[in-house]
């Protein structure tokens, strides 16, 4: 999502009025008032709003109104992502409230139509998660890794029905353009084997699929986290989320010194959520796959931003580390 500065707003068109009437119906009240236009959705597919209800509650409204179909794979991928998110909130989100909880917004209503999707969601600011961070400190990273561990424990072994069969927005089957952009880079030949290693894991769960800092809300003091934006939720190994999250928070130089301790913290929290007897085999497999997951995202990034000439010694070191696995397929 593209972050924009929140602005106070009033319903100033028939479209706004009709939207607010739909929001009120889904929330079970008579009237709703537009408070803020929070941000545009990525690619111009809609917007995120804060809406006040007549009973005093506030809700977050994700209004998805896709542009005209241009026939592209990117457009089809985005449409599929909103269907996956709708299914998550309708079918799976309530499971996140089971102890130990992995907090997500509660859905007051989620509907799909020919015109798009409408999500009426709990306002996490009003529910004890007002914190946002543009730069993650130790507390924010550990709180998010705890959330990821609990989420992965909650859905371990679950069949990804109605969501993405393979979660994350960068998995190979949906990114042929980025693969072609790699050209003769060694990752081009490595990509199918990386994908097979991750998808062939014995222990699979649901992954959030876009677990970056922009999608995390924090409690006061950053001791707890809640995550939003479930467009790319689906099946996979938990370390795909962990690798992506850490790569979005830390520079390559910071990764060398910090990733081992954060990985220990993640597996400590996973063991706490699963129980030591159940966690052992999962941890052994996922630890071995962590560098594979990291390099797989690196594969996507190099194809998505081929003009980025900055050095990433950490990712290159992990690529060298997994090369023996890539030759054994």
Structural description of this entry:
The protein has 329 residues and is an alpha+beta fold. It has 2 domains: 7-122, 2-Layer Sandwich (Phosphorylase Kinase, domain 1), CATH 3.30.200; 138-327, Alpha-Beta Complex (Aminoglycoside 3'-phosphotransferase, Chain: A, domain 2). Helices cover 45% and strands 16% of the residues. The strands form 3 sheets. Strands 1-2-3-4-6-5 form a 6-stranded antiparallel sheet. A two-stranded antiparallel ribbon has the order 7-10. It has a two-stranded antiparallel sheet with strand order 8-9. A hairpin with a 4-residue loop joins β3 and β4 (58-64). α6 packs across α8. It starts with 6 loop residues before the first strand and ends with a helix.
Blueprint of the fold:
Layout: E1 7-8, H1 14-27, E2 32-40, E3 46-53, E4 58-64, H2 73-92, E5 107-113, E6 116-122, H3 138-154, H4 176-181, H5 186-199, E7 205-207, E8 216-218, E9 225-227, E10 234-236, H6 239-249, H7 252-274, H8 276-304, H9 313-327
Antiparallel strand pairs: 1-2, 2-3, 3-4, 4-6, 5-6, 7-10, 8-9
């Amino acid at each position: 999502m593209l972050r924009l500065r929140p602005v106070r707003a009033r319903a100033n068109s028939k479209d706004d009025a009709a939207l607010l009437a739909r929001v009120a119906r889904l929330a079970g009240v008579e009237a709703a008032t537009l408070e803020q236009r929070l941000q545009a959705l990525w690619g111009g597919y809609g917007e995120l709003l804060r809406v006040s209800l007549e009973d005093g509650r506030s809700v977050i409204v994700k209004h998805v109104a896709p542009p005209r179909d241009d026939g592209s794979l990117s457009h089809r991928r985005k449409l599929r992502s909103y269907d996956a998110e709708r299914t998550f909130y309708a079918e799976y989100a309530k499971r996140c409230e089971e102890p130990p909880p992995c907090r997500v917004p509660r859905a007051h209503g989620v509907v799909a139509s020919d015109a798009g999707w409408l999500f009426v969601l709990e306002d996490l600011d009003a529910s004890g998660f007002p914190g946002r961070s543009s730069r993650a400190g130790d507390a924010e990273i550990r709180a998010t890794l705890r959330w990821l561990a609990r989420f992965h424990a909650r859905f371990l072994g679950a069949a990804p029905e109605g969501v993405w069969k393979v979660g994350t927005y960068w998995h190979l089957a949906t990114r042929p353009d980025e693969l072609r952009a790699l050209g003769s880079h060694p990752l081009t030949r490595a990509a199918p084997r990386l994908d097979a290693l991750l998808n062939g894991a014995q222990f699979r769960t649901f992954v959030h699929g876009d677990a970056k800092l922009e999608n995390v809300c924090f409690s006061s003091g950053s001791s707890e986290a809640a995550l939003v934006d479930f467009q790319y939720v689906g099946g996979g190994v938990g370390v795909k989320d962990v690798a992506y999250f850490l790569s979005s928070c830390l520079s390559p130089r910071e990764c060398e010194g910090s990733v081992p301790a954060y990985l220990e913290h993640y597996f400590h929290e996973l063991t706490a959520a699963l129980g030591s007897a159940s966690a052992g085999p999962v941890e052994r497999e996922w630890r071995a796959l962590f560098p594979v997951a990291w390099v797989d995202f690196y594969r996507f990034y190099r194809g998505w931003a081929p003009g980025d000439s900055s050095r990433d010694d950490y990712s290159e070191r992990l690529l060298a580390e997994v090369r023996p696995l890539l030759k054994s397929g």
